[in-house]
# Entry
Amino acid sequence: MAEEVKVELFDNPRFGRDYTITTRVPEFTSVCPKTGQPDFGEIIIEYIPDKSCIELKSLKLYMQGYRNKGIFYESLTNDILDDLSGVCKPRWMRVTSRFTPRGGITTEVVVEYKAE
# Structure
């Protein structure tokens, strides 16, 4: 988990019903491990909760833990999915990272989790 920030949860108020929660983090930052330059992007978290939902203030603090971390887009997107799905155990989750252009190139990484 990014700098070991604890993501908090609350009880799903409509357990038993499938519905999708979409959370956007439009000002996400991390650091390129090759150049040391900041990377700016948006993280989109979509999930169908099971018993628990993600509390947003703790999610914000978790995301801020990446601010000074040197990490590739592919790794951070997969790490976020692993961390969040591991904590809240959703029925389904997708994490999309969309980074602003650097050198005329944009990158989007999409990863998914589905409960067995």
